[in-house]
Amino acid sequence: MKSHGINIKRLAMGALVVLVLLTGFGTATTADAQNPGLRKPRRVIIVRPYRPYWGRPYWDRTYHVVDPIAQQREEGYSDGRSAGKEDAKEGNEIDPEDHKDFRKSKSLAYREAFLRGYADGYRDKMKDSD
């Protein structure tokens, strides 16, 4: 009778171990696997010039912080402005969505800035031609 009790305990423990292993493998994922479409933001760049002879510490504390959203806005506005000027110069209709830079971008900040820059560039070029 004791042998049946030991077998049942072994069976229950084995089932518990299998259950823990199966649930553990399903939940162990990385952050990249959860969001494969998102790009990682750019890194913060820290520049420390080497100044051994000025009485300061060997590494002076100079930091340059890069904001990826602000950089995307600047690039989008610049690209949109040049595209708007080019379309106005050639006499094309106002269609910022026709440009490859706008269509290929996955960043909302870039697209919004591109539209603003396109409108400003198109308007400025039309004022110059009048």
Report low-confidence residues grouped into runs of 5 or more: none
Give the strand line-up of the largest sheet: 1-2
User: How many beta-strand elements?
Assistant: 2
Q: What would the principal axes of the Cα set say about the shape?
A: elongated
Radius of gyration: 30 Å
What's the helical proportion of residues?
Answer: 55-70%
What is the overall pLDDT average? 77
* Total helical segments: 5
Approximate strand percentage = under 5%
Secondary-structure element string: HHEEHHH
- Tell me about the biggest sheet? 2 strands, antiparallel
Between the first and last Cα atoms, what is the distance in angstroms? 104 Å
SS class: mainly alpha
Describe the structure.
The protein is 62% helix and 5% strand. The protein has 130 residues and is mainly α. The chain has a two-stranded antiparallel ribbon. The longest helix has 26 residues, at 2-27. The protein starts with a helix and ends with a helix.
Keywords:
5 helices; 130 residues; 5% strand; mainly alpha
What is the topological layout?
Blueprint: H1 2-27, H2 31-34, E1 45-47, E2 62-64, H3 68-90, H4 100-104, H5 108-129
